[in-house]
Amino acid sequence: MLDYGFKEEHTMIRELVRKIAVEKVMPVRAELDEKEQFPWEILKVLAEADLCGLYIPEEYGGFGQSVLAFCIATEELSRVCGGVGVTFAASALGSTPILIFGTEEQKRKYMPEIAAGKKLAAFGLTEANAGSDASGLETTAVKDGDYYILNGTKQWITNGGEAEIYSVIAMTDKKKGARGATAFIIEKGTPGFDFGKKEKKMGIRCSATRELVFQNCKVHKDQILGKEGMGFIVAMKTLDLTRPGIGAQAVGIAQGALDEAIKYAKERVQFGKPIISIQAVQHMLANMATQIEASRALVYSVAKAIDNGAKDYTKEASMAKLIASDTAMFVTTEAVQIMGGYGYMREYPVEKMMRDAKITQIYEGTNQIQRNQIGLSLIKESARK
Amino acid sequence: MDIIVCIKQVPDTTEVKINPETNTLIREGVPSIINPFDENAIEEALRLREKHGGKVTVITMGPPQAKEALKQAIAMGADDVALVSDKAFAGSDTWATSYTLAQTIKKIGRFDIIFCGKQAIDGDTAQVGPGIAEWLNIPQITFAVKVELQGDKIKVERLLEEANEVVEVPLPCMLTVVKQINEPRVSSLKGMMKAKKTEIKTFSAADVDADPLKTGHNGSPTRVVKIFTPPPKGGGEMLCGSTEEMVSSLISRLKERKTI
């Protein structure tokens, strides 16, 4: 990997997370995947190592609000297990709305426990009929005095059921369309708030994905994030900020697959020599490595720009997520190909990496939506000239 | 509760290679780590501190680069560390090493428990811990797998080959621990930041009032006559087939080799 001019603390974070990933995650990743078992043990280790608050300011118990630090940690975890990587990252997704739009009181109430790793957060936007088109939301929040009554179902919510704190988008005024959505903080255990079945997934199988079910769930108006009607802005700003994290997850998955492919190609002897000495294989590895480094460079650049105070980074955040996730799918597929029959077997880790990679092209905005976003930004930029 | 943990920095491999010409360990290119059993010792000390309060001081005797091991101990959560380092200590065997560490512990002063790993993975002697206890004239319990503090006494379960043995001793005492006692924690980020900033204090031979006749090569009765790599064992052979087939095949092979 290129020297990206990291600060010493970033190098330290990488080494620490790498150590945890190799020592604590690698030995259990296949089993967690097979049993679809939530990685609580690993989250505990991450919490004890002070790694749950990398993106949270120190005044709220974190390590200092760095998207780059968070990306590095997500990358190194995902390099070993994409499922553990997303579980770690989804808590940031769920708590970012509180960080950006929460009142001082809300931040003081929720962030320290999240930073300490005592509680997980989750983000509830997607519904059965509202995926890429978030304006189709059907979950409603009807005002009733100082409270709102929520009804509806959120679908495919990462960390659903395991998390304690949920940032949920619901329609407070359907007539207003996009301006009629509102974001709420809802705690697990609130009456009327329940969970649907745990989904069975293709990849990232140790992560928990559930429905959030609201049936006359009464939430106090103090739980609103930002103002009534700001729900979509909360969602969009949050996703802008967390997209580099998905990019980092994808870079990690890809790097993990490249690591395995190289290791295998050096050991595997065919035609009397290790297959890494065959040019066809070298070219495959070269393409994989090149794409990974390009993706990583963009992810880090966007993360650094955000940390340095960039205001408008929607386009670049989308680009980072797009290139990294397409790279993850490409690289993991090639890794399986290089390893041939071994790669296809569940005894070896790359088939899991290929399954894990696919979701990075889908969640937090499909790659088609990312391209829309980038296209829209290009049009806006050209109009300004 | 004042706890002292004695650790050793060792090469990170269980397969230490030996230079056949000089009969010394090849250390080039081998990264150094805290002796794994010593990590268990640190962990146990930290757990006792978390339960009963107090202070954990980690010490090591070694060259200046052993500071890295002490920094890792801080990152894990040690309150204080000290390096005992002096050219005069070169060539120390377990006798001189345990003397030097005991002198250092006397210098530090207060302690209730001393923890050591059961042995180092490079020398494999398992003598330094017990040696320290003897120099300090305190009880020692080796191979601890479970530790329970009961007032001014400590109840310890020892992991032996055939059975576990439970013993009780008054404090202060010295314990060596086996790896089954716990799982050492991973360093924390805040600990690592603290370690980075910490200036490691170093004691010289004079600082710990070490008798020159008891330290280093002079103080070491052990003489290494020869170090060598034993010839590799030949590979085994697995016999297949039914029991009768395997037995007859085995007997014919043994006869072939004139073993029977």
TrEMBL record, chain A:
<comment type="similarity">
    <text>Belongs to the acyl-CoA dehydrogenase family.</text>
</comment>
<dbReference type="InterPro" id="IPR009075">
    <property type="entry name" value="AcylCo_DH/oxidase_C"/>
</dbReference>
<dbReference type="GO" id="GO:0003995">
    <property type="term" value="F:acyl-CoA dehydrogenase activity"/>
</dbReference>
<dbReference type="GO" id="GO:0050660">
    <property type="term" value="F:flavin adenine dinucleotide binding"/>
</dbReference>
<dbReference type="InterPro" id="IPR046373">
    <property type="entry name" value="Acyl-CoA_Oxase/DH_mid-dom_sf"/>
</dbReference>
<protein>
    <submittedName>
        <fullName>Acyl-CoA dehydrogenase</fullName>
    </submittedName>
</protein>
<dbReference type="InterPro" id="IPR036250">
    <property type="entry name" value="AcylCo_DH-like_C"/>
</dbReference>
<feature type="domain" description="Acyl-CoA dehydrogenase/oxidase N-terminal">
    <location>
        <begin position="8"/>
        <end position="118"/>
    </location>
</feature>
<dbReference type="InterPro" id="IPR009100">
    <property type="entry name" value="AcylCoA_DH/oxidase_NM_dom_sf"/>
</dbReference>
<feature type="domain" description="Acyl-CoA oxidase/dehydrogenase middle">
    <location>
        <begin position="122"/>
        <end position="217"/>
    </location>
</feature>
<dbReference type="Pfam" id="PF02771">
    <property type="entry name" value="Acyl-CoA_dh_N"/>
</dbReference>
<dbReference type="InterPro" id="IPR006091">
    <property type="entry name" value="Acyl-CoA_Oxase/DH_mid-dom"/>
</dbReference>
<keyword id="KW-0285">Flavoprotein</keyword>
<feature type="domain" description="Acyl-CoA dehydrogenase/oxidase C-terminal">
    <location>
        <begin position="229"/>
        <end position="375"/>
    </location>
</feature>
<keyword id="KW-0274">FAD</keyword>
<keyword id="KW-0560">Oxidoreductase</keyword>
<dbReference type="InterPro" id="IPR006089">
    <property type="entry name" value="Acyl-CoA_DH_CS"/>
</dbReference>
<dbReference type="Pfam" id="PF02770">
    <property type="entry name" value="Acyl-CoA_dh_M"/>
</dbReference>
<dbReference type="InterPro" id="IPR013786">
    <property type="entry name" value="AcylCoA_DH/ox_N"/>
</dbReference>
<dbReference type="Pfam" id="PF00441">
    <property type="entry name" value="Acyl-CoA_dh_1"/>
</dbReference>
<dbReference type="InterPro" id="IPR037069">
    <property type="entry name" value="AcylCoA_DH/ox_N_sf"/>
</dbReference>
From TrEMBL, chain B:
<protein>
    <recommendedName>
        <fullName>Electron transfer flavoprotein small subunit</fullName>
    </recommendedName>
</protein>
<dbReference type="InterPro" id="IPR033948">
    <property type="entry name" value="ETF_beta_N"/>
</dbReference>
<dbReference type="GO" id="GO:0009055">
    <property type="term" value="F:electron transfer activity"/>
</dbReference>
<dbReference type="InterPro" id="IPR012255">
    <property type="entry name" value="ETF_b"/>
</dbReference>
<dbReference type="InterPro" id="IPR014729">
    <property type="entry name" value="Rossmann-like_a/b/a_fold"/>
</dbReference>
<feature type="domain" description="Electron transfer flavoprotein alpha/beta-subunit N-terminal">
    <location>
        <begin position="22"/>
        <end position="212"/>
    </location>
</feature>
<dbReference type="Pfam" id="PF01012">
    <property type="entry name" value="ETF"/>
</dbReference>
<dbReference type="InterPro" id="IPR014730">
    <property type="entry name" value="ETF_a/b_N"/>
</dbReference>
